[in-house]
Amino acid sequence: MKKTVLLGAMTIAGLAAGAASAATMDDVKARGKLNCGVTTGLVGFAAPDANGEWDGFDVGVCRAVAAAVLGDPSAVEFVPTTGKTRFTALASGEIDMLARNTTWTFSRDVDLKFEFVGINYYDGQGFMVPKELGVSSAKELDGATVCIQTGTTTELNLADFFRANNISYEPVPIETNAEAQPLYLEGACDVYTTDASGLAATRAAFENPGDHVVLPEIISKEPLGPLVRHGDNEWGDVVRWTLNALIAAEELGVTSANIAELAAGTNNPEINRLLGTEGNLGEMLGLNADWAKMAIMAGGNYGELFETNIGENTPIGLSRGLNAQWTDGGLLYSPPFR
Amino acid sequence: MSTMTDPPSESFRLSQLINDTRYRSYTFQFIALIALVALIAFLGANLISNLAAAGLNISYEFLGEPAGYDINQRLIEYNSQSSHWRAAVVGVLNTLLVAVVGCFLATVIGVAVGVLRLSNNWLIRKIMAVYVEIFRNVPVLIWILIIMAVFIAILPQPRDFRGEDAEASMLLGSFAFTGRGFYFPKPVMGPGSGIVVAVFLASIAGIFYLRSYAKKALFDRGQMIPTLWPSVGLFFVPVILAFFVMGQPITLEYPELKGFNFKGGIFARNSLIALTFALAIYTAAFIAENVRAGILAVSKGQTEAAASLGLRPGRIMNLVVLPQALRVIIPPLISQYLNLTKNSSLAIAVGYMDLTGTLGGITLNQTGRAIECVLLLMLFYLTISLSISAIMNVYNNAVKLKER
Ligand SMILES: N[C@@H](CCC(=O)N[C@@H](CS)C(=O)NCC(=O)O)C(=O)O
Question: Which superkingdom (chain A) (predicted)?
Fold first, then answer.
């Protein structure tokens, strides 16, 4: 593949230039920073806090990867992306990975050539309406004006849902969640639709969250997860197993509180392999032996990340539901560390 | 002793390519051309090899696939099962709608403001100057967003029209001005309405004929034929007569609040209105300056000569100054039309589904075919822009100074 400085400036030609550049891990290590694509701002998932520090559930995944690869959870450059810009950003190499409530779909995987490394939130698309409209089911929305984010699975599901139920609607396309809020609150749209987790997060940011209801229908499956480019399997493995490490840590009872103690060695071989006191899993990934320990220490295990960012004791108040461990009747199931 | 200077030899030496002014410019142009071709070939080859390395190819097959998304404003039949190509065409038509209405409004406002900026009235002059400076110096995207935000914040939403003691009500029971857009009554064509329309078109043609006849009479014989009242009469009387003779075939369908929104009538969406209006008043500020420049370019002697012939100020402007000013105004006006058309691609800021919103937005994003979509997008805009230039150039040739 030809490399050229000139090309960098050519948007179109440049679009594909970085696409196939393998060895993302070497780039990240050389740079000393992980470029991680996140949302433009969705409280609980990814948003800058009062000090301008990015914080949230998806941000937690970025920090865990940075900790595993670079040993420093703050060595992350967060790149805000919209539903529209995220895939170009990843394909062009502007970001090393994307953690932005992105749904794993066939065409994104096969046609757009991205590799979803796992699922960090099992979601589905829902509808939110003001209580005063007195709507109790999405099937009553005939003729409603609906705000949707463009470039999402949301807009495709919406078209299918209304078609299948033979009711009409008026779509109002918008680019970011932040733009949708005033439109919805001022009544320019009757309904706001997106992933149910996103609705909860958006509603939590309202002045009077109680004035709005989320309708019972969930009209789609939205498995959200981090993704990388096709074609760089080593890097894909690193991100995949970092996510798995967070999930496995919860299952194995490894938390940010007891990890220092457990890292001294336990009589559970799987914990030992995970934390690098036994075996050489880190080396196989091309990382240090304590890679998973660093990842877990960055923000805690999966359960801790969930509870601090979006769990029941936060304003967003999501319950674990499908996102509980398989041992608790949920769908989270990390393959074994062996 | 006589030294003979050689007659200038016609033999050609290579160094002449650089040193001889007759050839030098060709040499450099040729080198530049080669460099350009090489650069393009290199970029193209690079693009193709990189695409191949990434396992991608250039293919327009996706245009035939179902688009899968809905578009709120469509001038032709379209639903989510229609193809991406059709979605692109819906986008083109929406772009053209904004461009045509926007250019028309911008011209009307621009000419009025340009003329008024030269008014003798101090206050009017200053107000127009303030208008021009404010709109010229703030980016058009900001105007679009401001107008849309004001629109949504100030006007009542359909839900405010509901209930016994509703906060808002319809104007004359037939117009609804809501934050989502304006609803008007729509004419419904019954049987026999074609004749009414034909009569109306005939009267319009009649008005044009009358005006050109009056102009000819004025120029040939110096005879003034009144045109204002006859035109007004021609406009209204025949069509009203035809309407009643045919037994009132055209009725109105009124918008009505049904469920979440008004139904029926004509709906002008908030995004369309805000975008068109913002583009029009922004571009009008530039056109006003062109018009002012054009008028000032007509020498003062012309005005004075016309005045000494006893023409009234209105006639001086219309018959003497503006026709000459047009020659100066038209060429920059073409650029303004092109600017307006291209600026309409900011439509997505208010959720208006123009070409950039459909083909360059949702289609590009859902299919991931960025290069194909961008190339096609450029082609569409190029075609639209070149067509506008071509049409305007024809007009320019018609009004420009004819040398006899
Ligand atoms: N899961 C869907 C939708 C993702 C999406 O756009 N989510 C919204 C709300 S849940 C979001 O993250 N918005 C933040 C932003 O606008 O940057 C997809 O992948 O297409």
Answer: Bacteria
How much is the ipTM here? 0.79
B52–chain A Cβ distance below 8 A for any pair:
no
- Structural domain includes residue A337: no
Among the partner-chain residues B159, B366, B371, the one whose CB lies closest to the CB of A187 is B159
Domain final residue, candidates A174, A201, A220: A220
CA distance A44 to A57: 6
Regarding whether A199 and A107 lie in a shared domain, the answer is no
Instruction: Provide the domain limits for residue A52.
Output: 2-122+224-328
Q: What DSSP string describes B174-218?
A: TBEEETTEEEE-EEEE-TTHHHHHHHHHHHHHHHHHHHHHHHHHH
Which neighbouring-strand residues pair with A332?
A: A325
Residue A74 alpha carbon to ligand 1 centre in Å = 24
Q: Does A112 contact B at CB distance below 8 Å?
A: yes
Residue A335 lies in a domain: no
Same domain, A36 and A108: yes
> pLDDT, tens digit, for every residue of B44-94?
888 888 877 766 778 888 999 999 999 988 899 999 899 999 999 999 999
In a domain, A90, yes or no: yes
If asked whether residues A233 and A95 sit together in one domain, one would say: yes
Helix (H, G, I), strand (E, B) or coil at A144: strand
What residues does ligand 1 touch, defined as CB less than 6 Å away? A 39-42, 82-83, 101-103, 149, 152-154, 176-177, 194-195, 198, 222, 224
How many Å apart are CA B392 and CA B381, to the nearest integer? Answer: 16
From the list A301, A295, A293, the residue with the least C-alpha distance to A272 is A293
pLDDT averages per 10-residue partition of chain B, 404 residues: 58 80 85 93 87 77 92 90 94 95 96 91 94 93 93 86 73 82 84 84 91 86 82 87 82 82 85 95 95 91 91 85 88 92 92 92 88 92 92 85 67
B84 interfaces chain A, CB cutoff of 8 Å: no
Largest separation between any pair of C-alpha atoms in chain B: 121
Nearest by CB to A15, from B261, B353, B371: name it. B371
What's the number of domains chain A is made of? Answer: 2
Residues A178 and A267 in one domain: no
What is the predicted pLDDT for the residue at B161? 81
| A13 & A105 share domain | yes
Could you tell me the CATH number of the domain that includes residue A204? 3.40.190.10
